Amino acid sequence: MAVTQSNVVTACKLLIGGKWLDSSTTEYGTVTNPSTGEVIARVPMSGGQDVDRAVTEAHKAFPEWAETPAVERARIMMKFRSLLETHYEEIAKTVTREHGKTIAEARASVSRGIEVVEFALGIPSLIMGQSIENIARNVDCETIRHPLGVCVGITPFNFPAMVPLWMYPVALTCGNTFVLKPSEKVPLSSCLIAELLLEAGLPDGVFNIVHGGKEAVDALLTHGLVKAISFVGSTPIARYIYQTGTAHGKRVQSAGGAKNHIIIMPDADVAQTVQAIQASAFGCAGERCMAGSLAIPVGKAADAIVPALVDAAKAMSVGRTDTGSQVDMGPVITHEHLVRVTSLIEKGLSEGAQLLIDGRNVKVVDAPKGFFLGPTIFDKTRPGMSIVREEIFGPVLSVVRTDSIEEAVALGKDCPYGNGAVIFTNSGRAAREFKHHFNAGMIGINVGVPAPMAWFPFTGWNNSFFGDLHIQGQESIYFYTQQKMTMTRWFEQTKNKFQDPIWKARG
To answer: How many Å apart are CA 21 and CA 50, to the nearest integer?
Structure first.
């Protein structure tokens, strides 16, 4: 993997067939520390040649790995889990360094990734089939689940450790081999964790890593030996991944972006609600598909909630996260992304929204080249505005005031996304109406971020997900396996004619 020693920036390598290899490309991108803007690694922008090498090695390793008993595969994953715990702090610090999360956020993301490994440890029972005796006279029927072959993961920048861990622990324990293409912005965490997989005893070629951008992605989407593709990222790319992958005969699960609604009823507990919204909107600098970016107070709820939200946001500390200092929020991922989010703030102003707190004013004295933006809150926004309609993917919260829960729920009907939505209330009726009618796949009731734990699927709807089987939970087992049904009939054995006295007489 790539490391930085004595300010010498080295290049990330590819993991192919159990070996760390140089890429065949001459084109390299840079990995930066968002807190400082400093280049910390170089990443190869691999093309079809490197992808073919990785996929071919995964294909070669598949038959032996698929025949490895599920219990043995789970035991390797158990060793892997132990190594993740041992190197927990090192992984979290790597996430912070290349992404900019606070150390608390990085630790939490690693923990959520480990949960998926724990889920995968139950693979012997998770892949059990079904059977019934005498489904017809003297006919028995059973189903069993088989691995697919070479599976691919294409992952985003916002969770360098967690999102890849959503994918390959399940794929591998199901008996597949895997090729991971991490985001070229944050490849270091994946390389570090891959070393732990090898140390756990995973056979050569079962897990591989390639780096790069669109050229590498397209090579994976169209490669004849790839059977399934898992993706997490923005909606336009998620749609492209799904359309291209399925057009080339791949099974695809493709999770996209979101615009998540937080409805606040007049009876909501103000202190608890503000704390939850603050974490949802500004946690991870707003760079997550489950961020609550639309606050929708109903009736008089706005009178108490909006001023309290402004006070809470103003009290948040923003600063560099790579020094171990305790701050509430770190930088966004790159200078380019900072410019994009800032431009959307400016667009909100031009469209008539009221800016209550402006994160563009944040200055971090000890990191003048860092990519910092403070919490930003707009009030009195309208459904047609860009900041209400578009996924910003930054620490920007828009307040849309409504007169009734029906009006608040109707906003969700018009939203093209459908990841998550939350209501804060003490009313069982309001909670039930919201739960039943809101147009999103993940619902929270007095929960700021309704992201499921590993045992439940990540069930985005609409333009937030393309495919049939979601990431995580039992659906992930179905995604990474194919089902075979066998019907059996055994006839009653007849007497050997040569033992019959008549045949003996003729003999």
So the answer is: 10
Cα 325 to the center of its chain, rounded Å? 27
Instruction: Please state, rounded to an integer, the average pLDDT across all residues of the chain.
Output: 95
124-170 pLDDT, tens per residue?
999 999 999 999 999 999 999 999 999 999 999 999 999 999 999 99
Q: Are 440 and 419 in contact (CB under 8 A)?
A: yes
Residue 368 region by backbone torsions, left for phi larger than 0, else alpha for psi between -120 and 50, else beta: alpha
Q: Rounded to the nearest 10 degrees, what angle do helices 70-86 and 88-99 cross at? A: 70
Mean pLDDT along residues 191-214? 98
| Coil, strand or helix at 263 | strand
Q: Please report the pLDDT score of residue 364 as a whole number.
A: 95
- Judged on CB neighbours under 10 Å (0-12, 13-18, 19+), 23 is buried
Q: Report H helices in 440-484.
A: 473-479
Question: Which residues are part of the catalytic machinery?
Answer: 289
Model confidence at 2, pLDDT cuts 50, 70, 90, reads very low
CATH architecture of 260-445: 3-Layer(aba) Sandwich (3.40)
CA dihedral in degrees (161, 332, 368, 311; nearest 10)? Answer: -120
CB 375 within 8 A of CB 329: yes
**pLDDT exceeds 90 at position 505:** no
Q: Please state, in angstroms and rounded to a whole number, the distance separating the CA atoms of residues 214 and 98.
A: 21
Class of domain 4-257+460-487 as given by CATH: alpha beta
Domain positions in the chain are: 4-257+460-487, 260-445
Hey, what amino acid is at 454?
A: A
How many residues are there in the chain?
507
Q: How far apart are CA 343 and CA 386, in angstroms?
A: 11
pLDDT of amino acid 158: 97
In terms of DSSP bridges, do strands 420-424 and 4-5 run parallel, antiparallel, or are they unpaired? unpaired
pLDDT band for 9, please (50, 70, 90 cuts): confident
pLDDT at residue 407 above 70? yes
Distance CA 297, CA 399 (A): 8
Q: CA torsion, points 468, 473, 474, 476, in degrees to nearest 10?
A: 50
Q: Show the tokens assigned to 125.
A: 């029972």
Torsion angle of the four alpha carbons 47, 211, 476, 127, in this order, in degrees rounded to the nearest 10: 90
CB 177 within 8 A of CB 9: no
Q: What angle in degrees, to the nearest 10, is found between the helix axes of 301-314 and 270-282?
A: 50
How many angstroms separate the CA atoms of 192 and 190, rounded?
5
* 402: its two tokens: 């409504």
Q: Which residues pair with 41 in a beta bridge?
A: 31
Amino acid at 187: P
Name the token pair of 151.
């599976």
Can you name the residues that pair with 354 across neighbouring β-strands? 379
DSSP of 214-230: HHHHHHHHH-TTEEEEE
Distance CA 143, CA 67 (A): 18
Distance, in Å, from the CA atom of 38 to the CA atom of 277, rounded to the nearest integer, reads 32
